[in-house]
Amino acid sequence: MRDNTIVRKLFACESMGSATIICTDKIGTLTLNEMMVTEVCLGKEILSEHGVSKMSTTVFHFLREALTINFAALISNFVASMCSGKVPLTAVQILWVNLKMDILAALALATEQPTNKLTKKPYVSRSGPLITIVMWRNLVAHVLFQVTILLTLQFKGSSIIGVDEKVKDTLIIFNTFVLCQVFNEFNARKLVKKNIFEGIHKNKLFLAMIGITVLLQVVVVEFLNKFAGTERLNWGQWRASIGIAALSWPIDWLVKCILVCGNEIPAE
């Protein structure tokens, strides 16, 4: 070790091969016996000597949100195009939803701080499934809910909400779909627990990203309607979109009452 000044500022000193005087002076007691590291904390992941890890749930949170958006949009457009020749979501609208997901939702969900319970959970094997049984339960439920909403609005939206075909086709479906993802981001915070608001006040970035998402959606609907190919909505139509999207909260609570085995999700 050539830079003795740097070494003297360290809390510990490692000697490769033969020990040096500088290391002996630094740590006081010097041993040349082999030592084994059993766990290493790297970012939000705890690695062990056996090739397994304790991962933070933020990866699973974002993965569930991303899969829900894409599965719901794909299935809805496929079924609607086969039945009526029209799709509920245009290419520009899907692009906006995915852009929002890749940036804002990623920042909102991936910045959730892990709790101390993470160190007490069993290790997760690197060869284990990326989508666990718990994730499949939540994913299937919310995809079915959103597909049902989109197809219902596509075929019966005019009579249910009381809007003309142009507004229904261009905006009501798109606005409801985006708001579903906003409410679903709260659900994605907790994959197992029913209380999706637990500790939400500690994550200021999550609340900020939700606010920015809602603000951008209002701007797109009310001011960039020509670019997005939409029509402006009145207050009644906004309330209808919010009310329909908010149904994802009670549905998520009911789905989490269904017990499943094989819960490999780390502590939340």
How would you explain this protein's 3D organization?
The chain has 268 residues and is mostly helical. It has one domain: Calcium-transporting ATPase, transmembrane domain (Up-down Bundle). 58% of the residues lie in helices and 5% in strands. The protein is built from 10 helices and 4 strands, in the order H-H-E-E-E-H-H-E-H-H-H-H-H-H. The chain has helices at residues 4-8, 21-27, 58-84, 91-110, 133-161, 165-188, 204-222, 225-228, 235-246, 248-255; strands spanning 39-42, 45-48, 52-55, 124-125. A 4-stranded antiparallel sheet has the order 1-2-3-4, with no helix packed on it. A hairpin with a 3-residue loop joins strand 2 (45-48) and strand 3. Helix 3 packs across helix 5 and helix 4 runs parallel beside helix 6. It is globular.
Quick summary:
InterPro entries: ATPase_P-typ_cation-transptr_C, ATPase_P-typ_TM_dom_sf. By secondary structure, the chain is mainly alpha-helical. The chain has 10 helices and 4 strands; from the N terminus they run ααβββααβαααααα.
Label the structural class: mainly alpha
Mean pLDDT: 75
Helical content stands at 55-70%
Distance between the termini: 43 Å
CATH topology: Calcium-transporting ATPase, transmembrane domain
Total domains: 1
Count of extended strands: 4
How many helical elements? 10
